[in-house]
Specification:
Blueprint (H helix, E strand, L loop, with lengths): L5 E5 L5 E6 H7 L3 E9 L5 E6 L9 E2 L2 E4 L6 H13 L5 E14 L2 E13 L10 E7 L1 H10 L6 H11 L1
Parallel strand pairs: 3-8
Antiparallel strand pairs: 1-2, 3-4, 3-6, 4-5, 4-9, 7-8
């Protein structure tokens, strides 16, 4: 998604208020939707990708699927589009887990995101794009241990999703 593409600006209960460019939303801290897909294998392992150096959360593990919902795009459509872009397939099973506002300042942007979080089941090959430099599978126990003992390995947005929806 380019910086000039439009996103819907929403209120605290996810009602559309207006539209703005992605750039303007980040510059002004306007609340807008982002889909997050936490990827599980059918046997319960959790897949995380390591962000490339030019991204927020550089060098840290994050959810493999995540991105902005375009203006007037359905959340499920955005999830499938992002899955195709970020893991190489939209042939996924998914279930909405919940929604929650996440706000931070990072790399000169005011991210005020209305996270739309999904549990994704996918057993196929992960074909990550230029936003990632690798991936790893974790068992739930291993992930809980790693987050507790080495939290700097994980991006802040990922820890927010983990703590609010999976922990």
């Amino acid at each position: 998604m380019s910086q000039d593409e439009l996103v819907d600006i929403v209120d605290e209960v996810n009602n559309v208020q207006s539209q703005a460019s992605k750039f303007e939303a980040h510059e002004k801290g306007l609340l807008h939707r982002t889909v997050i897909g936490m990827v599980f294998t059918s046997d319960g392992r959790i897949c995380l990708v390591k962000q490339s150096d030019d991204k927020q959360d550089a060098g840290q593990y994050v959810c493999p699927i995540g991105g902005h919902v375009r203006s007037e795009e359905l959340e499920d459509e955005a999830l499938l589009r992002e899955a195709e872009e970020e893991i190489g397939s939209s042939d996924i099973k998914y279930k909405l887990v919940g929604r929650k506002i996440y706000n931070r300042e990072v790399i000169g942007r005011k991210e005020n995101h209305f996270f739309v979080v999904y549990k994704v089941i996918y057993d196929g090959e992960i074909i990550y794009n230029e936003e990632s430099v690798g991936f790893e599978y974790f068992s739930p126990d291993q992930l809980a241990y790693e987050i507790k003992t080495n939290p700097s390995k994980f991006g802040d947005a990922y820890k927010f999703v983990y703590n609010n929806f999976y922990h």
